[in-house]
Amino acid sequence: ALHWQGATETSWPGHSNAWFYAGYGPFRRLSGGSSEAQRLMTAQGPGNRLATLFHEDASLAEGVSWLIDLRLRSYEEDPERGESRRLLDQVLTLLGDGLLPDRYQIQRVTADGLWVREAGDDGPGFPLREMSDGYRTVAALVLDLVRQLHATHGPLRTEATPSGGIALTHPGVVLIDEVDAHLHVTWQRRISGWLREHFPHIQFIVTSHSPYICQAA
Asked: Rounded to 10 degrees, what is the CA torsion of 61, 90, 94, 209?
């Protein structure tokens, strides 16, 4: 196992909400999953953050449903306050800040899910679900992690990244089994840096069979 520590301070300040942890197995599906596994994913309590570690038929579809719900609520809320719109914009900014390779960016969410287009392209793009497993699994993991952080801590705490995006400053520990699953070699070399930059106070503990992941650790 490899440890990616993004902060020198402890991950556990002295209040219960700071005790954040999550775990992700190698099958990080963006959709599908058995009804029993999905029941575990939507159950109350922190145990749902570990469901994919122990149930390969669990999916991370709740993250997309969460964004769709935020989008719908943003149409109904007071424009002067706009909590749902602000949160939605934060999540899309994070997902669009270099997470996907080959100049692809997650741009928006509709009732049909997340949409992707190439940087500089003004066209409508295409659904993330039509992309390969690597794109879908990485997006599903990051989106679920953000959703779980929000469920634990409430409003997202952010800071600017050197690339002009945002990083989330909440502390915690995240386990990822076979972090290199479905990722091209060039993506394996950069995924650890992306996670450290955008979640600087989370300690990532990962397993991998890839020498490229080890070199980048």
From this structure: -40
**pLDDT grade for 61, boundaries at 50, 70 and 90:** confident
pLDDT at 205: 93
Calpha distance 171→168 (Å, rounded) = 9
Rounded to two decimals, the pTM is 0.85
List the one residue out of 2, 26, 28, 38 whose CA is nearest residue 135. Answer: 28
The number of C-alpha atoms within 13 Å of 20 and in the hemisphere containing its C-beta is 25
Domain ranges of the chain: 20-38+48-216
11's torsion region: left (phi>0), alpha (psi -120 to 50) or beta? alpha
Could you give the CA distance from residue 91 to residue 11 in angstroms, rounded to a whole number? 22
Check: CATH 2.60.120 for 20-38+48-216? no
pLDDT exceeds 80 at position 1: no
Q: Of the candidates 210, 167, 124, 153, which has an alpha carbon nearest to the alpha carbon of residue 6?
A: 167
